[in-house]
Here is the input.
Amino acid sequence: MTAMTHAPEVFRAAVDALRQVRPRPELVLEPVRPPRRLAPWSYALSCEATGPADVVASGRLVLLHDPDGPEPWHGVLRLVGYVTAEIDPELAGDPLLLSVGWSWLTDALEATAAEYTALGGTVTATSSARFGDISGPARTDDLELRASWTPKTPDLRPHGEAFCRVMASVVGLPPVGVTLFGQRHGS
Here is the structure.
């Protein structure tokens, strides 16, 4: 990618909007090196989230810009989101987990009024068991969400906020302003 000053205006506006996202304190959002071969212009943010009981998730939101507007995109901008987290074994066995994981994204996009088209993706749950002399926990369960969508405008702040909401949902954080019973402090 060449210098941002030479980037197309629509891409610069989209990046500026993503830079305005201010996540809640449990999330750390920072720019990272974007992929180079997916589009002529790209920008990426990484996100680390910590929830109750030290549940941790990591994610990445990538903005792609191709002035030629590839057919499947239905536009010249494309967002790609990726989230992964270790989950509780009981949650891993829930038959609704995959649908709920997808609803975290669609509900977040709706809640932030992020306008989009061409949304698609996958939610994957995996379980791994260690045997023999391999060190580490005997079993781990993980959830992975991968999605991409085309924003209808370069105002990507609502999309960035939606991504942060997804990260918060994955680690089990309550909505902003809501306190879980176990989290209250005595007065």
Observations:
- The first strand starts at residue 27 and ends at 32.
- The chain has a mean pLDDT of 90.
